[in-house]
Amino acid sequence: MTEVRATLHPGETLTLRIDSLVAGGEGLARVDGRVVFVPGVMPGELVEASVLTVQKHHARALVQRVLEASPERVAPPCSVFGRCGGCTWQYLSPAGQLAAKRELVREALERLGGLHGLDVAPVVGMDEPWAYRAKAHWALGRVDGRLRLGWYAPRSHDLVVPEACLIQADPLEEVRQVLEKALAPLGDALYDERTGRGWLRSAFARLAAGTGEVLVGVVGFSDEAPDGGAWVDRLRKALPCPATVVLNVHPEYGNKLLGSRTRVLYGTGRILERVGDLEFVLSATSFFQVNPRQTAVLFAILRELAGLTGQERVLDAYCGTGALGLAVAAGAREVLGIEVVSSAVSDARDNARRNGVAHASYCEGTVEGLLPELVASGWRPDVVLLDPPRKGLESSVIATLAEVRPRRIVYTSCEPATLARDLAAFVAAGWRVDAVRPLDMFPQTAHVETVVRLEG
Questions:
Q1: CA 345 → CA 87, 393, 397, distances in Å?
Q2: 8 A C-beta contact, residue 321 and residue 390
């Protein structure tokens, strides 16, 4: 049952049967040939929804009532669910989330990549899919005249402050409360994007779950805080765990989260994380997975799919702090990492030394820029690990790998749409998709990590 209308108008109420889920986790329904995207639903559900916006070929609508619910629908446990922009899938049972994420991956591979008939493995979930997130970036605002740390509501700058974030690791909630008090005297110095005035932009923290260390940071418009840095003394005296404090200097106008320069104000500016028998030093701007428990599972999947024998040269592209390459290094003859973020390259080199991996080295630069130079110099990888940003691979990277012809590629992606696009290009260049292994790195959200093995 799908309501048919010749035209749609914002504010109009529709009765919709949800056909499927699409990338990003929204539901898809159809009205008179036009696609309607609806968040907060499951396939098969019948909902009453209000039209939000109308474009030429699609519209968006918000659920007003669920008329026929999926058996996987549950009551969201968070008091600010729906107002906070974070956990979009708390209304789904754990089993329902895993099934939906598997379908998202399959749908993207087929519809966007034209890759039909692939065996998409069941999504590897967590026994306890809560309190897993080891990194937080908080928005700042005034609530009842008081400076508060929280998150923005979807499509707005309305600050939402939960009693406690259910997906955030417990120590980070303590840090949020301490940081809120330490920054309270700076409430009059809040940055305003509209006017470009103010100093205090946002705050963040990263927890090393394996050691309990925490990196705490503030994003400021300039090097000097209005209170002369007194907030740092207040903070470090109150922090409940071993910590380091940094200031990220972000003098540019706009809503970009971080600037290009970070100052260490207290401690070393880095924390030590342990995953299994590996150790990693992490800086403020270096990439590392936000779910430590599932990172250990990811490492195991990588070792299995890489299938190393001890004789291979491994290229770790977009290597960040070197985590993926070091996870498989015991089975490799050589590991070479490429990373554009300078602090991450420094961390990766330290991590290789810390873990006794003498046969790992790292180059600073873009993959699309450095990989052709390596190839021109005669260096050839046998196995390639890819973990690009959400936007996926540049076409030149795929072209260079097609020229080099490594025996195996293991591609880790957090975005099914760009993964599907890139896999289609690899298949067109002669590779075969041999394994598709989704992993639930982000429970309670529509995001899914996928590891794919390509054989040359």
A1: 32, 20, 20
A2: no
Q: What is the C-alpha separation between 267 and 242, in angstroms, rounded?
A: 9
Q: What percent of the chain has pLDDT over 70?
A: 99
Q: Compute the CA torsion angle 145, 150, 154, 155 (nearest 10 deg).
A: 60
pLDDT tens, residue by residue, 387-430: 999 999 999 999 999 999 999 999 999 999 999 999 999 999 99
- Res. 6 pLDDT band, cuts 50 70 90: low
Q: pLDDT at position 3, please?
A: 47
More reliable by pLDDT, 413 or 8: 413
Question: What average pLDDT does the chain have?
Answer: 95
Pick the closest to residue 66 from 82, 88, 44, 83 (CA basis): 44
Residue found under tokens 């130079």 = 373
Closest CA to 172 of 150, 146, 142: 150
**Which active-site residues does the annotation give?**
414
The residues near 109 (Cβ < 8 Å, ≥ 6 apart) are 115, 118, 120, 416, 419, 420, 423, 436
Q: Is the pLDDT reported for residue 218 higher than 90?
A: yes
Q: The sheet that has 313-317: what strands, in order across it? A: 360-364, 334-339, 313-317, 383-386, 408-413, 449-455, 432-439
Bridge-based pairing state of the strands 408-413 and 135-143: unpaired
Q: What angle do CA 258, 261, 267 make, to 5 degrees?
A: 100
pLDDT of residue 2: 46
- The residues that bridge with 435 in the sheet, in sequence order, are 453
CA-wise closest residue to 273 among 285, 256, 291: 291
Instruction: Annotate 84-123 with DSSP letters as a single string.
Output: SSS-TTTTB-HHHHHHHHHHHHHHHHHHTT---S--BPPP
Cα separation of the two ends of the chain: 46
What one-character DSSP code corresponds to residue 330?
G
Distance CA 147, CA 399 (A): 51
* CA neighbor of 215 nearest in space, from 176, 172, 244: 244
pTM of this structure: 0.94
Gap between the Cα atoms of 36 and 29, Å rounded: 5
* Burial degree of 98 (CB within 10 A; 0-12, 13-18, 19+): buried
* Residue that is written with structure tokens 């979930």 in the block: 125
**Per-residue pLDDT tens for 22-79?**
888 899 999 988 899 999 999 999 999 999 999 988 999 999 999 999 999 999 999 9
What gap in Å lies between CA 305 and CA 335, rounded to an integer?
16
